[in-house]
Amino acid sequence: MSNNIEGKVVVITGASSGLGEAAARHLSSLGATVVLGARRVDRIQALANELVGRAGRALAIATDVTQFDQVQRLVDAAVQTYGRIDVMINNAGLMPHSPLDRRKIDDWNRTIDVNIKGVLYGIGAALPYMQKQKSGHIINVSSVAGHKVRAGGVVYAATKHAVRVISEGLREEVKPYDIRTTVISPGAVDTELTDSITEPDVAENLKKFYAQVAVPADSFARAVAFAISEPAEVDINEILYRPTRQEY
C-alpha cells in the first residue's frame, strides 16, 4: 500500500538541525527524495551523505533564505536533478525573543527577513514549477506563537502570525492548480531555536522552560508526514500541536 510519500521530491529549508533535519530523516526513511537547504553546508552535506549511505536519495545545497536567488537556486537544483518538486517545506526560522523596550533592531530585522521573507521566497521559488505540474504541496512552519502572543515575544509572534496569513492566502490562490497547502504550528520542541536569543536573561528563562516541557523534533516530522501522506484530494491545511505539559 502506497504511503503517498515514497518517490516524492521534497525540498526543506533550515535542514541543518532541529525540525528540518528531523523531517529530512523521517521522510527519507519513508522513501522520499530530500533536497536540503541551509547556511551550514557542512551539516547538510553530512546529513545528505548519511541518507545516501542508507540507500536514500538526498542533495545538499547551501542556502540563505534571506536571499531569493539562493532559494531559487535550491529549488532549481531539485528540479534539474530529480525532474520535479512535489513538496516545499519552508522551515527556516529564528526566535530572538526580547521586550520591545530593549529595541533590538537587528534582531527584529533578522526575524522578519528569515521568518516572513524566507517563507515568501520559498513559495515564490516553488510555485511556478508546481503550477506547471498542476500538483504540489507547500508546507509552511508557524508556531503556537502564531496563535497567541506573550510579552517578550512580540516580533516573533508577529512573524508567525504572518506565516498563517500567507498560508491561508496561498491556499485560496492555488486551488486552480490542485496544489495543497499546510501550515504547522508547533509548541515547544527540542531544537536549537532558543540559541538564536541574544538577550542572556531571556535565553536563560526560555531554555529552562524548554528543558521542562519540550518534545523531540520527530514530533514535527510525523506531523509533516501525516499531511503529505493523505490522498491528493485531501488538503490538511493546519496542524497545531503542543507538548501535553505546555500551558501556553
Morphology call: globular
Question: Total domains, how many?
Answer: 1
CATH-defined superfamily: NAD(P)-binding Rossmann-like Domain
How many individual β-strands? 7
Which percent range fits the helix content? 40-55%
Comma- or semicolon-separated keywords:
single chain; 248 residues; alpha/beta; Rossmann fold; 7-stranded parallel sheet; 7 helices; 7 strands; globular
What does this structure look like?
This protein has 248 residues and is an alpha/beta fold. The protein has a single domain, classed as 3-Layer(aba) Sandwich (Rossmann fold). Helices cover 46% and strands 16% of the residues. It has a 7-stranded parallel beta sheet with strand order 3-2-1-4-5-6-7, sandwiched between helices. Strand 4, helix 4 (105-133) and strand 5 form a beta-alpha-beta unit. Helix 1 (18-29) crosses helix 7 (218-229), helix 3 (68-82) runs parallel beside helix 4 and helix 4 (105-133) runs parallel beside helix 5 (154-173). The protein starts with 8 loop residues before the first strand and ends in a 7-residue tail after the last strand.
Short description:
This protein has 248 residues and is an alpha/beta fold.
Secondary structure layout plus pairing:
Elements: E1 9-13, H1 18-29, E2 33-38, H2 41-53, E3 57-62, H3 68-82, E4 87-90, H4 105-133, E5 136-141, H5 154-173, E6 179-186, H6 200-213, H7 218-229, E7 238-241
Helix pairs in contact: 1-7, 3-4, 4-5
